[in-house]
Amino acid sequence: MVNLGLSRVDDAVAAKHPGLGEYAACQSKAFMKGLFTFVTGTGATLVLQMFIQRKFKYPVQWNLLVAVVAGSVTSYWVTRVESQKCSNLWLFLETGQLPTNMGTGQRS
Fold it and tell me: Mean pLDDT across the chain, nearest whole number?
């Protein structure tokens, strides 16, 4: 048995997919980036709202909600982008070629 995060993967599955460990590490990194983005995005939004509130007086009741929503949206976007990179890595490790729809910015 091979440990993959908190779960165990059978040796036969790990042998069949040699890039499984790299993919799992990539996904873990993507989720940690998302969590870090949520915390820093929420905190930064709260600080920004405190500075804005000094200039323009408005009720405080919505500050936390707006900050959490802003942090969540940003975190979701970062996690989605990083997870897509991990999916592309997985396809490359399994097939040896990059996906055709990666959107490298080159237009034909």
Answer: 82
